[in-house]
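Contributing: when you submit paired examples, paste them exactly as shown. First protein:
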Amino acid sequence: NDLPQRLIANVMFYLSDAVTQLLEHKEEYTQFGVIRYLAEYFSSVKNSNHVLFREFNYVKATPHNRASFIRVFWRCYRQIGKSGDLLSMLEYRSLLQLLCPDFPVEMVQSASRIVLMDDAIDCLMSFSDFLYAFQLQFYYQEFLDSVLLIYQDLLAGKSPNTVIVPTSTSIEQLPSVAAEETDREQDGVDTPTLAQCVDALCDRFKHSFPPRACMRDILEQSDKVSYYSFLMSLAKHETVNQTIGVLPTKAELLIDPEMDQELDKLIAQISVSPGSNSSGSAVGGALKEVQRKASPRRNIHHRRRMEVESDGSTEETDSSEN
């Protein structure tokens, strides 16, 4: 069992990043205390705020980071789902890039294809449909990429015995392969054969993958299945959602009394401005609140300023923090 090794690797990853951040901002952190900084850093990791505004390589580096980013995305933009707005793939990409500036469009396209069954990714999608598809695609990216290559091999008529677990090079070639096979994909492949290959993949796969029981249950429902219908069923499966462990059920997705109370306060504050948009401002307010909590560096700096001001300083407060 390589679980202990993975846990150790993840801990070392966070320690390495904490030290890197410390060295990059050495003067500030040594002034306020290294121990205090480390406490802030690991507190933000524990509270899942550490991924906000970080680079994509950091956001995807560990399962906890991926789950944290999914949670942040849901919390920041839940109001969009509550308002019932339908957004395009490009609009969801823009929202994701507000949280992670270099978030790749390919990931957003893949999630959109799950929702739209690869028909036309320029169609509009509800927030909840996109969110659960995005959760599946982002959290299990490597596994889904591997399943897609297996699926393409089966479509091409290869025997299950000749299907090979994809390499990193072959995964990089996936977009062109998927595009070439779109027309043929509608018929799907035999589910018993795909189930056999997926089960064999799980035996030797080193990244996270959905519960085997869920995949078997889905593949037993019909004689043939297409790749995107398989993924859509996984995205909707509550056991998959519970396994990742960050999103509530679809029925409870938009229920958050504490957040509603905060948003009501924000809407009341901006209602005096005739040119403001309540829905957009509420989302922006939620994002600003998460931003306030996100960075250990910002928290230390902010508290230091509050301490100075409480001692009688006449220094003006930055309007962005009011």
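Second protein:
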Amino acid sequence: MGTANQKHYPISAILLLGLLTIANIDAAVSQENESSVGPTSVSLEVPSEQELRRRAERAVSAYETGLVATDRTEQVRAFETAQIEFRQILESYYRAGKNASPELWLAFGNASLKSEQLGWAVLAYRKAIENTPSGSRTALQSTNNLDFLRQSLGTASEIAEDASYLSQIWPTQPIIEQISGVLFFVACSLFGLSLAIRRSWPTWCAILPLTALAIMILMWVIGPQSDHSKIAVVVGDGAFLSTADLLDAPLQQADQLSIGTELPVLRRRNNFVEVDYATSTGWLPKHAIRTLDAPFDT
């Protein structure tokens, strides 16, 4: 990405990220050791604390080497090494069912950006933003880096932001279910009150939450099925949008989607993921994308 990007990642910042990463590893490994008993810890194949420390130190060291290297080949090799090490740590957390720190996702995003793996950088920055309070230093750095990356990619990564306006403003299914539960409870309480005091006015009052409940059920049935927490990011080649989840299905368009493109996920089936793209939907092969909720599943 050239030297213009280096102002985003000073050596002091990555050193801090390295310390935060190692501290987070200590806490996570300690928690894992306390909660895992017998065969469970073996089946998860969680690396030891020492191994995670070594990976974190190698990642930070490789990143620093890339920052000071003058030879382009050496730079790329160093950043690729850092990216691989950070990714292995994150994948270890994921396989163990643990949440990695936002600082670790930010460091992984920086290494991915420097090694020109732009799809992974987009995903990493989004994960960092997703897992940290807004306004924090990590959130601000991740947001700034993601905005910079999107500008570098042009409009490709903005497709998901403009696609399907209805799916963006429509409440998600979990929210609809929660509201419906509250409305049902209120209606039942009013009916119970009516029976207890032998008055009809609570029954009439129950009409309002019941009407709202009917609207919620209708929204749940006819509304968009996209879960806003499930975003797919194109990370590799072969992201051709097809009309069905079949290898020989007709293509929606001749050109493959650009790396770094972000798309709302509708559903998964076989080795394909259905996504919301512009004014239509289509299927993408799993090998070309990763989703925020399952970043290391292929």
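If you have annotations for the second protein, write them as plain sentences, like these:
The domain at 226-291 is CATH 2.30.30.40 (SH3 type barrels.).
DSSP finds twelve helices and five strands in the chain.
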